[in-house]
Write a structure and sequence with these properties.
3 domains, 11 strands, four-stranded antiparallel sheet, Rossmann fold, seven-stranded parallel sheet
């Protein structure tokens, strides 16, 4: 069928479905689905594509009512038992975050995932589980709740566990937890994800993450496989109070960011002093490309999108090569006591 005919049919379908919002993107989804058929994709490939879209749609709908709520995802082992000190520490950190207004997102399974939800309570918990032969249902805290969804694929589940949250806590765990933690770091390191607080939480005097940090510093860093600035992307904490403080402090002055054209716009919860702004320019000129950090008002794009137009802003042309330095800039923005 000629491309023009297909385009006309797609537009007719959208008209009859009364789709007006994000029409171009919906049309692209329909066209790509039809192209899979034209490509003679295998049955397996079609099953993967179809199931991925279906379960992402279900997860998007589940998260939608909580879009404006701040959320923290907790990763950790499914094998941790209730009498393990790490289980109790997870309950405590989740409970304290929930009391500070954070909804707690976990994989809805046993172990650390259950500990996070029991600490936060059902009302403040969101679950995204994976269907496994040996893990067939959600834990008792979230089972049957409207804030729970089960997924078939690890990649779609991980997307939802990462995409919806503004902070992360990694508790001790095995291959799955390490995979989740390193993907978080990779997203932050490459700029595929916005800067977020990533806390790796140890028990006092039991350096699970401390040992991994030593490996990074003694093995990866000397080989130039990571940079010194990359170490700023995560924080090792050894107490509940320290972990909660790290997350809350990250958003004390800094609020969020957005690229508008070539400039990076940082939205703030309060205006910075002239001295503070001058110090930022002195200390972070290396990541400013033919520009300096300056105060601006909301851009037209932000106003049109109703994207926090009333907040004070900083903007500069970011040299997108070192997101560890960007994290250090955010930390410096949040340091106001001595300025």
């Amino acid at each position: 069928m000629p491309a023009q005919e297909i385009e006309a049919l797609v537009n007719d379908l959208l008209d009859k479905s009364d789709i007006k919002l994000n029409r171009r993107l919906i049309a692209e989804l329909v066209r790509d689905s039809l192209q899979l058929g034209n490509d003679a994709a295998s049955t397996l490939n079609l099953k993967i594509a179809s199931a991925a879209i279906a379960e992402m749609r279900e997860a998007f709908a589940m998260f939608a009512p909580f879009a404006e709520r701040k959320k923290v995802t907790i990763f950790g082992s499914a094998r941790t038992t209730k009498n393990d000190p790490v289980y109790k520490q997870t309950q405590a950190v989740a409970g304290k975050l929930a009391s500070n207004g954070w909804m707690v997102v976990t994989g809805a399974g046993p172990g650390i995932m259950e500990a996070g939800m029991s600490g936060a309570g059902r009302e403040m918990s969101i679950g995204v589980s994976i269907r496994l032969p040996f893990e067939t249902s959600a834990n008792e805290v979230i089972a049957g709740d409207e804030k729970y969804v089960a997924m078939r694929y690890f990649f779609t589940r991980k997307l939802m566990l990462v995409k919806e949250s503004q902070a992360f806590i990694c508790m001790p765990g095995g291959f799955g937890t390490l995979d989740e933690m390193f993907e978080l770091l990779t997203l932050s390191q490459t700029g595929k994800g916005n800067p977020v607080p990533i806390v790796v939480l140890d028990l006092p005097n039991d350096p699970f993450w401390g040992d991994l940090d030593s490996f990074i510093k003694k093995t990866l860093l000397p080989r130039n496989l990571v940079s010194q600035q990359d170490l700023a992307l995560y924080r090792i904490c050894s107490s509940v109070d320290e972990a909660v403080s790290e997350i809350d402090n990250f958003y004390s002055v800094y609020n969020s960011m957005r690229f508008v054209g070539k400039r990076l716009v940082l939205r703030l919860n309060q205006q910075l002093s002239d001295d503070h702004l001058s110090k930022l320019n002195n200390d972070f000129g290396d990541i400013c490309l033919n520009s300096k950090i300056e105060r601006i008002t909301a851009t037209k794009a932000e106003i049109d999108d109703k994207d926090l137009p009333d907040l004070p802003r900083l903007a500069f042309q970011f040299a997108r090569r070192d997101f560890g330095r960007l994290r250090q800039l955010i930390d410096a923005i949040n340091v106001t006591e001595s300025l």
